[in-house]
Amino acid sequence: MLPSLVLSAFLASIYPDPSMQDVTKSISTERTPKLLIFVSFTMSGEILKNLFREAQKNEGDLVLRGLYKNSFKATALKLQKLRIEALIDPTLFEKFQVKSVPTFVLRENSSEEFKSLSGNVTFNYVLQKFKKEGS
What we know:
Helix content: 40-55%
Order of helices and strands: HHEHEHEHEEH
Number of helices: 6
Largest sheet: 5 strands, mixed
Low-confidence stretches: 1-17, 19-28
CATH topology: Glutaredoxin
C-alpha cells in the first residue's frame, strides 16, 4: 500500500487557472482533519510511528512540510518503510504558524480557530491541555 500524499500546493501549481486554484484550496480545506500533528523526517522512526498511531486513533493526520530527499519515490519508500501515512502540505505549516515539530493542532469545527501545542510530549498531555484551554 502506498501512502496517501496530499499536495494541495503542487495541485495549485499544476493548475495556474485561478478557478482551479480555488477548487484545490477548497478540496484541501474540506479534507483537513480536526487534529493535525506536524512532523518531520528528522524525527526518529519510533516517534513518527507513535504519533501516527495516536493520529489514527483520534481521526487525525500527520503533516509533513515537504518531500524526503526532494523525491516522491524516496518519500513513498520512507513512509512505506515506517508503515505510516502523512499529508504533505507546506501551506498548512504556514496557515497554522508551525515553527517546530512536533506541533499538535486542533481545529475548532470548520472555522479558522485552532489550538496548538509544540513539543515532544505525550498525546494524553496534549489532549488534557487542549481540554483545559477549552474550559
